[in-house]
Amino acid sequence: MGTENVVALRPKERVRQDAEPIATIYRNLGTSSAEQVVTRALAELALTMAGLAQQVRAHDMGDLMRQLRRLQRMAENLGMVSLGLVACDLRDCLDRGEVTAFSAVWARLLRIAERSLSSDKELLDQTFS
Fold first, then answer.
1. In the chain, what are the domain boundaries?
2. Lowest-confidence segment of 69-73, 75-79, 111-115, 116-120 by average pLDDT
3. Which 3 state secondary structure label does DSSP give 117?
4. CA 44 to CA 97: how far, in whole Å?
5. Contacts of 57 (CB under 8 A, 6+ apart)
6. Where are the alpha helices (DSSP H) in the chain?
7. Angle, nearest 10°, between helix axes 64-77 and 81-96?
8. How far apart are CA 98 and CA 104, in angstroms?
9. From the centroid of its chain, how far is CA 1?
10. Is this prediction's pTM over 0.85?
11. What does each C-alpha distance from 15 to 2, 54, 75 come to in angstroms?
């Protein structure tokens, strides 16, 4: 079998987001305070993802379940529907000991996180409902 028959797949995830949690923060706190809170929450979410990536690379699954639950809550609080759902799926894979499924869902979580944390305005316009 030659390499001419190999197709490189580049999955492109559709990211679902809900603007209401962010809108509520802005309504309750006002623009200036809300920007600080949301920026801080997004930075914390990004750091959590980086920590998870480091744990997975090191095969340190010790408190991965807890960290994934934390990521899920953070994502839900920011209206990042897809990110929260995939974090939950990854916890299921971990809980069941499904190594192959874990690898596939982990790759999906990385793609979703990358797109969810993107500052591309066009992406935000397309995904907020």
1. 15-127
2. 116-120
3. coil
4. 28
5. none
6. 20-29, 31-57, 64-77, 81-96, 99-116, 121-127
7. 160
8. 10
9. 37
10. no
11. 35, 23, 12
Euclidean distance between CA atoms 72 and 106, whole angstroms: 14
When pLDDT is averaged across residues 108-115 and rounded to a whole number, the result is 94
Residues 106, 87: contact at Cβ < 8 Å? no
Distance CA 49, CA 75 (A): 11
User: Tokens 């090191």, residue?
Assistant: 58
How many angstroms separate the CA atoms of 69 and 125, rounded? 28
CB 15 within 8 A of CB 127: yes
Residues 6+ apart with CB under 8 A from 50: none
- Token pair 């639950």 is found at 69
Which amino acid is located at 26 in the chain?
Y
SS3 119: coil
Q: Return the number of other C-beta atoms located less than 10 Å from residue 72's C-beta.
A: 20
Q: In degrees, to the nearest 5, what angle opens at C-alpha 73 toward C-alphas 70 and 79?
A: 140
